[in-house]
Write a structure and sequence with these properties.
8-stranded antiparallel β-sheet, Jelly Rolls, Tachylectin-2, Chain A, 2 domains, 533 residues, 1% helix, mainly beta, 1 helix, 39 strands
C-alpha cells in the first residue's frame, strides 16, 4: 500500500484498542462497557481498512451485564494469538452477579468463543497476556498499591498463568507505577519482547485530556524496569484544548510481516467546544525503533488526521449499506442492546422485512435491558431516519428513535398513544454539564416539543450538524415537517454527561412501567454520514 490514510481508522465509540497479527491478517478488539454483544472484533489486511467479523461475547451466558451501571461492564480487552488459539482477556467491572478478570478463547476469531475462565486473585483492571519464547505465559494488570501515595496511585503487576488450568500461579511482582511521580491511573499494560529486551508499555494520566502512553524496559520479565527518559512517547495534553485530536492514550503495538511497527490507540475529536459525542475512537500511528526505544510518529511526534500509510497491500472491504431493510435472518453486527437480553424483545421473523420491538415496562432511564436496538454515532454530521408502524390506545406507550449517551442523558423522539396520538421530543439530562467523568448524575425530564399526529405509519428523521440536532416527522415519505431544530446535543458527550462511552442512536419502544402486549414495527433504518473528508 502507498500514499496516506485518514484517522481515525475506526470512527465512533471504539475505545481501548488491542491488536494482534496472524500471518498477513490483523485482528482488533475494543471495549464496550454496558453494551451487548460485547467486544466487537475486526479483521484487516492493511491496518487501515477494517471489517467487523463478529463479537467476542455474543451469548448471555458469557456476559452477565444485568443491572450494571452506566459505563460499568467491559473494560479494556487484550487480544493475543498463540499456537493456533486466540485469547481475549478482559475485565467485567461492577457486575451485579459476576465481576472481575476473565479469559475467553477461540480457534476462529469470528467465533464461537469459549465461556469465560474467571481468574481468582486478580485485582484491578486492564489485564493483558504475554507469551514468552520459553513457553511461559504471563499476566499483567493494574492494581492499587499496598501503600498509596496520592489519589489515583496505581501500579502494574505481573504473575504467571497456567494455560492448562487457566489459573494464576506463583508470586505476584510489582513492575512499575508509571513515568511520572504523581502520574495517575497507571493502566493498560502490554508486554513485548524486542531484540531480547522486555518492554512494558502502559497508559497513565487518566482517560481524558491528560492521557499519555509511556514505556519501560528490562532484561528480565520481572524487572527491574527502566523508564524511557523521553517519556511520554505519545501524548496530546500539551497541545491545548482546541487541538482537533486530544486524549491520546491506551495503546497497543504490532509488527507487520514487513518489519514495520505500528501503534493503535484511542483519542477524541472535540467539536463545537470541548465536546466529543463520538466518544473515544481508534487511531493508527507509525512507530520506529531508535536506540532501543520506540519513537511514535517520527518527525511529527503526534497523531494526525492524515498520515503515511503502512507498507502493506491495500485491502478494502465492501462498505456497510446506509440502509438496513431488516431482511436478513439476524441483526447486522453494528447493532447493540443495553445490557444482557434475557428475553427476546425483538424479532426479524414475526413480520418478515421488519424489526419488531415488544413494548415492555423497562424504560431507557433505568439500569435495565429496555427494548432498544442501537448503533454508534460515527460522524459529526449525519442523517438518520426510519419508518415506524405503531398504534396504541394508551398514553404510557411509545415507540420511535433515541439519541443516547446513558440512562441519565439522552433524547427520546417518540410517537405516543392515547385518544390523541402525539409525536414528542423528550430530553433527560442535568441542567448544567457534569465536570467529572464519574459519577454520572441524576438527570431530569424535559419536554422539548410535541405535536398531534394521525395515522399508523410514521417516518422519523434526525439530522446532526455538529452539536445542533434537528428532528423531523412525516406520515408520507419525504413530506417532512420539523418538530424541533437546532437542539443542543452536548449532553451526548462524556465531557457533559460523565462516563466513558460514546453516543448511540437507534430504535426504542416502551410501555413505561405498565404491562403491555403491544409491538412496534420498524420497516427500515438508514444512517448516512455527512462529514467532509
Amino acid at each position: 500500500m502507498s500514499g496516506t490514510y485518514r484517522n481515525p481508522i475506526l470512527p465512533g465509540f471504539y475505545p481501548d484498542p488491542s491488536v494482534c497479527r496472524v500471518g498477513d491478517d490483523y485482528y482488533l478488539v475494543n471495549s464496550t462497557f454496558e453494551y451487548f454483544p460485547g467486544l466487537p472484533i475486526f479483521h484487516s489486511r492493511d491496518l487501515v481498512h477494517w471489517r467487523q467479523i463478529g463479537h467476542v461475547l455474543d451469548r448471555p451466558s458469557q456476559l452477565p451485564l444485568d443491572g450494571v451501571r452506566a459505563s460499568g461492564g467491559l473494560y479494556a480487552p487484550t487480544i493475543r494469538y498463540h499456537k493456533g488459539t486466540f485469547y481475549v482477556i478482559n475485565t467485567l467491572v461492577d457486575g451485579t452477579s459476576k465481576a472481575g478478570n476473565f479469559i475467553v478463547t477461540a480457534t476462529d476469531p469470528a467465533g464461537p468463543w469459549s465461556e469465560p475462565y474467571w481468574l481468582e486473585g486478580a485485582p484491578g483492571i486492564d489485564p493483558s497476556l504475554f507469551f514468552d519464547d520459553d513457553g511461559r505465559v504471563w499476566y499483567t494488570g493494574n492494581r492499587i498499591p499496598a501503600v498509596t501515595e496520592f489519589e489515583g496511585h496505581r501500579e502494574i503487576w505481573l504473575q504467571e498463568l497456567d494455560l492448562q488450568t487457566m489459573k494464576l500461579v506463583g508470586d505476584t511482582v510489582s513492575l512499575w507505577a508509571g513515568a511520572l511521580r504523581t502520574g495517575v491511573h497507571a493502566e493498560a499494560p502490554h508486554l513485548y519482547k524486542v531484540n531480547g529486551l522486555y518492554y512494558l508499555m502502559i497508559a497513565e494520566g487518566g482517560t481524558s485530556h491528560d492521557h499519555a502512553v509511556t514505556i519501560a524496559r528490562s532484561t528480565h520479565i520481572a524487572g527491574p524496569y527502566e523508564g524511557n527518559k523521553r517519556n511520554p512517547i505519545v501524548t496530546h495534553r500539551h497541545l491545548g484544548l482546541d487541538h482537533p485530536i486530544v486524549g491520546t492514550g491506551h495503546a497497543d503495538l504490532v509488527e507487520t510481516q514487513n518489519g514495520e511497527w505500528w501503534m493503535v490507540l484511542l483519542a477524541m475529536r472535540p467539536y463545537d467546544g470541548y465536546f466529543y459525542n463520538l466518544g473515544r475512537e481508534t487511531f493508527l500511528v507509525p512507530v520506529r525503533w531508535e536506540d532501543g526505544w520506540p519513537v511514535v510518529a517520527p518527525g511529527v511526534g503526534r497523531v494526525e488526521a492524515v498520515m503515511p500509510a503502512p507498507n502493506l497491500p491495500q485491502q478494502r472491504w465492501p462498505a456497510t449499506p446506509a440502509c438496513d431493510p431488516f431482511e436478513a435472518p439476524t441483526l447486522a453486527p453494528e447493532w447493540n442492546f443495553l445490557r444482557t437480553p434475557r428475553e427476546a424483545f425483538w424479532s426479524l421473523s414475526d413480520r418478515p422485512g421488519y424489526l419488531r420491538l415488544r413494548l415492555r415496562p423497562e424504560r431507557l432511564s433505568e439500569l435495565a435491558n429496555p427494548s432498544f436496538v442501537g448503533r454508534r454515532q460515527q460522524h459529526m454530521r449525519f442523517t438518520a431516519r426510519t419508518a415506524l408502524e405503531f398504534k396504541s390506545g394508551h398514553t404510557h406507550e411509545c415507540a420511535g428513535l433515541v439519541l443516547l449517551q446513558n440512562n441519565e442523558y439522552h433524547l427520546r423522539f417518540v410517537v405516543t398513544g392515547g385518544a390523541t396520538p402525539k409525536v414528542r421530543l423528550e430530553r433527560r439530562a442535568t441542567p448544567e454539564p457534569n465536570p467529572q467523568l464519574l459519577p454520572i448524575l441524576t438527570g431530569t425530564e424535559t419536554l422539548l416539543a410535541e405535536s398531534p399526529i394521525e395515522g399508523e405509519r410514521f417516518y422519523l428523521k434526525v439530522e446532526a450538524d455538529g452539536q445542533a440536532y434537528s428532528f423531523y416527522i412525516a406520515t408520507e415519505l419525504e413530506a417532512w415537517r420539523p418538530l424541533a431544530e437546532g437542539v443542543d446535543g452536548r449532553l451526548l458527550s462524556t465531557s457533559y454527561a460523565g462516563g466513558f462511552v460514546g453516543a448511540y442512536l437507534g430504535m426504542y419502544a416502551s410501555s413505561n412501567g405498565q404491562p403491555s402486549a403491544n409491538t412496534a414495527d420498524f420497516d427500515w433504518f438508514e444512517y448516512t454520514g455527512l462529514d467532509e473528508l
